[in-house]
Give the backbone structure.
Amino acid sequence: MNVGAVVIILLLVLAFLGIPIYIALGIGTLVALNMAGMPALVLPQKLFAGMNSTSLLAIPFFILAGNIMSRSITSKLIDIANALIGWIRGSLALVTVLASALFGAISGSGVATASAIGGITIPAMKNEGYPDHFAAAVSAISSIMGPIIPPSITLIVYASITNVSVSALFMGSVFPGVILALSLIVYALFYGKRHNLPAHERQPARKVAVTFKNGIWALLMPVIILGGIFGGVFTPTEAAAVAVVYALLISLFVYRDMSWKELPGVFADASISTATIMVMVGLSKASSYVVVTSGLPQQMLNLFTSITNNRVVILLLLNLLFLIIGMLMEANAAIIMMTPILTPLLTAFQIDALQFGIIMSFNLCIGLVTPPVGLCLLLSNQIAETSLSKALKSMLPMLLISIVVLMLITYAEPLTTWLPSVLD
């Protein structure tokens, strides 16, 4: 058997047995190295090489910034969203979408978005008489904007494997994120009107102004981060560090809604999440080395070309492949596993690596709400305390909307490549 395929098979089997992804990846790589007669020293060498990248420093910083936000700044973002659109029927669903987009513009994590935003808006929706399954559904689907709207941890991982610029990937994901957010808002408006969901009274201009004044420091956070990156003021890694410092200053000294005693727990949680991702990224270099030297990428290329030589069909097949993978595997692990295998395919069919990275990330983020993994759906369902089958059924129209947006960015290349070409 091809040793590259051994890595993938063992990774999938061990993951299904409940072994953490990074451990499963390490075991699969070690077994493949032994089968190929390669020295075990390759593993630590490639592990260090994989983590020895300054761009990867953005991951712990963005995770830490998201953890700080979830304990402090999140409620201010929700207050602002409520002041803007709280008078619309079904407004809390709209607030959930808008607040998730704002939170995603800082954290880069879908699970963090589902926990921070859904933890506040789902109970609020239930208290106002929203169907609990709809509350879980709209929170879950909105949370996938966390890794889609820049900054995105999945795109940072993709950039570490390829030669694509992190900044370019962030710029290219702006339109897909905005289109998805607007599409979900339109659906929430339709659902709210059709099901006669409750609405709040329109707030007077003075009260709206006060809400904005109280939340302006929270609202400035995504503006500073994205504006700094796109304006060339600082790199994504520097932006991540700025996000942490800004979040700490605002939470501790301006809003004062986070105590010093909470900081050790915040840093510990961020450290655990970071360690898992970093080890996985490091191991990806070793697994990629085994996969590439095994000739598996060329075999995959031959398989796809034996099916069709049509670029449109190839893109469709890739999307189907990642939709299936996203149902079974965590996004970062899937990117690490599949990118080296499919790189020759991109070259052969002239698929832009930047566009492909965004397509793959968007596609795998849909996996955050599709069983059996579906972490964001499971988390939102747990918060809402409702039936998983009902929540999934309620989410299906929004899931279809997400797939339509995916097809749009797949075949309308300028949606992902135009902005980076202009701002580069």
In short: Residues 263-294 form the longest helix (32 residues).
